[in-house]
Amino acid sequence: MTRYCIIGAGPAGLATLKTMRDSGHDVDCFEMSDTIGGHWNHDYDALHLITSRQVTGFEGFPMPEDWPLFPHRNQMLEYFHLFADAFDLKSYITFNTGVTSVEPLATDGPVGSAGWAVTTTDGLRREYDGVLVANGHLRDQKRPHIPGEFTGKQIHSGSYQNTANIEGKRVLVIGSGNSGCDVAVDAAQGHFDTHIVIRRGHHFQPKTFFGKPRSELGWMQEFSFEEQDLLSRLMMRVAIGEASDYPGMPIPDHRALADGPPVVNDLLLYWVQHGRITVRPGIERFQGKTVYFEDGSSSEFDTILWATGFHASLPFIDSDLLEFKDGVPLRVGGAVVPVGLEKLYLIGMIGARGPQPPIYPLQAELALRMIALHEAADGGFMPIAGPLTQAQEHEWRIDILRPLWLDQVQQTSVALQVLSASQDVSVSR
Predict the structure, then answer these.
(1) What is the CATH number of the domain that holds 221?
(2) Domain check: are 134 and 20 in the same one?
């Protein structure tokens, strides 16, 4: 009987574990910490969802109706525990056990076709027919190189909890995505002298229109994706105004919302207009506590909050087995399959815009269909990664428009049907 390994018990790992257990597979799930939930256990205290609870949960398992429209980080963590308990998932998880290496078993065939060996922090080496990696992409903190040395306190948003982490009164936030805006607002509301670096103009999107979450405006669904984008920009202009209405804010160099990063935050704009947050351009260099900006200005700061994202890290896989672009493993098959590697599946290494939990089961289902093809084939292997690698464009992005990713999923679904027919085996859709 085949056996599979799942790495990680965050939301992606939980969705994968349920999918595999529902299909009757024997699974080992390893989690390096002592609990489920992944990064939701460590996110900053001010974090709330930017998508509403109605659309953010797992399909068929809604969040409690008495919760707020935009739940707090702690409520999301509670939700994942409710999900895990409802389906008895914790009993299949080995906690406090990390994975140190994932190595392909020796074979004359394609890499991974014979399965994979997984070594854990307890020193044990186990062999599996396939491995589903759900370790997340919000762990390995990224900081861009800036000339000079800053001698004040520095902390990344991935380690930031609340304003108790800030030293002094002068704060510079580097990075203006959703996390950067959140921590800047947190600092401003804590009465710190707060500055934020915004190098590229954003279309700041409100969480609601007419008091309703954007995803719950049913009439918007009657329009095409492009028309929805236009309507959203028109409503934003009425509700928010333009970049020129906010001191120091750069003008966006793109019209469509889809062409820039999704930034959902109206409190940052509020505090900019109230003088509690100052917008600064790109940084030229550091010298002591002084930061020199590209417009020739300079200021001293006590604390820098880096909100500069994360590396897509797979530290337990030999990097020579993977192909990369911009530091991200190249993938096919709805961004689930690393190019050229059989029986290895990446769940959660794609951030299709919008709520994330609903997309994890879709990825797990794709992996399950590939597993079913392998198991139905003679010898327990059917070439899948190889054909997909040859036939599909290689995906390097993590942030991707949801319609584009769903199109990749549909293309992969068709490809799996073709592979199934070519080998005279059946696989459920």
Answers:
(1) 3.50.50.60
(2) yes
